[in-house]
């Protein structure tokens, strides 16, 4: 029980992003990822990676679910519960920002290209949705990136960041599984993007945790719905506060606050679209949850800039 061997089921001609990114982060001294001890390669393809087994207090999603269950059982606001997750969420936000700074150092920083981002999102939209959401409205939101002029910088990103990809170790968080979204082409996963893509993945993750935990309650009432919303809002705000506390990450983001908010909303929509496709494939009985999230994000968007 000292090692983990991860076999890559989908083999590409070239390095697997999970190997490439963690090795790159390790090379610049970022310590909160598990760098492979050795990699099994055949030609240019990565087949498997061997890593040390990290001792931890649990995965982020497990700790968040424990917090939510306590809120529901006690029927008390999250801040009054012993397992309040907000300090953990803030710490995780700080760690994600530090990871982004290190990714910029390891792989370089370049000017954002909203036209390319929009093209990738539109291509993915039509690959995975198959008429289950309003693709025309979603595409119109994506296309606004092509003409936006305050998008910040582009770096290599995690690409599929959520609470399930964060491990609570003794004094901090470790981030893992850098393969990116499996439904996307490897070439797209390796392309630089905005750090806000990962932030959006985390904001969706907090909402997913609250929605999923509430769905597991038999006959939830309005009080529990309000508590679930309060948990998501409290922890999301704590995460964003922790993220913003890292000064160096701000040079990677849009300069104006409205531009940051608008870009984050676009990436949240992109993440929710991915959730619809995933649930339709793996858990069609719960696909309405992300579909409602897509509709809510479209309604909130209102055609803004």
Key phrases:
single chain, 305 residues, mainly alpha, three-stranded antiparallel β-sheet
Task: Give the radius of gyration.
Answer: 19 Å
Count of alpha/pi helices: 10
Question: Globular, elongated, flat, extended or rod-shaped: what is the shape?
Answer: globular
Helical residue percent band? 40-55%
Distance between the termini: 52 Å
Strand/helix succession: EHEEEHHEHHEEEHHHHH
Q: Biggest sheet, open or closed, and with what strands and sense?
A: 3 strands, antiparallel
Oligomer: single chain
* Uncertain stretches of 5 or more adjacent residues: none
Q: Which strand order spans the largest sheet, edge to edge or round the barrel?
A: 1-3-2
Average residue-wise pLDDT: 94
Number of strands: 8
Beta-strand percentage?
5-15%
SS content category: mainly alpha
Notes on the protein architecture:
The chain has 305 residues and is mainly α. It is 53% helix and 10% strand. It contains ten helices and eight strands. The protein has helices at 17-27, 60-74, 86-107, 114-128, 135-143, 186-190, 195-215, 222-244, 257-282, 288-301, and strands at 3-7, 38-42, 45-52, 58-59, 110-111, 153-154, 166-168, 173-175. The strands form three sheets. The protein has a three-stranded antiparallel sheet, with no helix packed on it. A three-stranded antiparallel sheet has the order 4-7-8. Strands 5-6 form a two-stranded antiparallel sheet. Strand 2 and strand 3 (45-52) form a beta hairpin. The radius of gyration is 19 Å and the shape is globular. The mean pLDDT is 94.
């Amino acid at each position: 029980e000292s090692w983990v061997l991860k076999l890559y089921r989908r083999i590409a001609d070239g390095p697997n992003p999970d190997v490439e990114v963690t090795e790159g982060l390790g090379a610049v001294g970022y310590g909160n990822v598990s760098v492979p001890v050795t990699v099994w390669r055949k030609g240019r393809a990565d087949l498997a990676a061997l890593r040390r087994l990290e001792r931890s207090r649990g995965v982020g999603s497990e700790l968040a679910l424990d917090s939510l269950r306590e809120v529901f059982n006690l029927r008390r606001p999250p801040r009054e519960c012993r397992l309040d997750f907000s300090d953990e969420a803030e710490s995780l936000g700080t760690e994600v920002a530090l990871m982004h700074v290190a990714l910029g150092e390891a792989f370089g920083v370049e000017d954002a290209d909203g036209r390319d981002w929009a093209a990738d999102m539109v291509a993915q939209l039509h690959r995975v949705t198959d008429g289950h959401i309003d693709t025309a409205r979603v595409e119109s939101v994506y296309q606004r990136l092509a003409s936006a002029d305050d998008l910040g910088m582009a770096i290599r990103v995690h690409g599929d960041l959520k609470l399930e990809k964060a491990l609570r170790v003794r004094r901090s968080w470790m981030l893992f599984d850098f393969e990116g979204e499996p439904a996307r082409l490897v070439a797209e996963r390796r392309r630089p993007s905005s750090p806000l893509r990962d932030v959006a993945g985390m904001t969706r993750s907090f909402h997913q945790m609250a929605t999923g935990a509430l769905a597991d309650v038999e006959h939830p009432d309005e009080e529990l719905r309000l508590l679930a919303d309060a948990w998501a809002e409290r922890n999301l705000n704590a995460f964003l506060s922790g993220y913003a506390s890292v000064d160096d990450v701000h040079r990677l983001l849009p300069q104006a606050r409205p531009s940051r908010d608008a870009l984050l909303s676009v990436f949240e929509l992109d993440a929710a679209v991915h959730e619809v496709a995933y649930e339709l494939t793996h858990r069609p009985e719960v696909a309405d949850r992300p579909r409602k999230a897509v509709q809510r994000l479209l309604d909130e968007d209102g055609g803004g800039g």
